[in-house]
Amino acid sequence: MSWAFLRDLLSGVNKYSTGIGRIWVAVVFIFRLLVYVAAAENIWKYEHHEFECNIKQPGCENVCFDHFFPVSHIRLWALQLIIVSTPSLLVVFHVAYRENREKHCNQKLYKSPAEIDGGLLCTYLISLILKTGFEIVFLVLFYKLYNGFKVPRLVKCDIRPCPNTVDCYISKPTEKMIFLYFLVATSCLCIVLNLSELSYLIFK
Description:
Layout: H1 4-14, H2 19-43, E1 52-53, H3 60-68, H4 73-85, H5 88-105, H6 118-145, E2 154-157, E3 166-169, H7 173-203
Antiparallel strand pairs: 1-3, 2-3
Helix pairs in contact: 1-2, 1-5, 2-4, 2-7, 4-6, 5-6, 6-7
């Protein structure tokens, strides 16, 4: 897929954001999106082919891989990036609505269509709450799907059609775990930034 749309979306929202919001955009774009595209995607590229079990029973390796990795880490990370960036569209649409309304009325209805006040402030706050909620949901999802934020070197599988308990080995587990911790750390940082911006706007 092309990430250009997400990049353009984040850049467009940047001009309506507070200082904390601009830091959030930088973290998402540099530490999450670019890391994903430049490095993380390649680590999980051949994860299924490199998943090995000490038995050649037809179908055993496939069902064991599906059991321990119901959703690929990297695909879930990509989905998280898309979902947590989507609420920013609310702000873009609201500003577009303001500008369109002024155009149709042929008069200036707002001090500045991009100024965060009134209805736009409510939209911005809602987008922050949604982004924070989505981040938390995905962290819980990662934790539940993979039994914690870790990638084991060895997993034992006894699911049919495996004839008995077999040992399966995950490729590059240390490297994958480092990137998983990085994912969790940047996600937590984004939650802190969203809550800080939310508090700043409310108290301001």
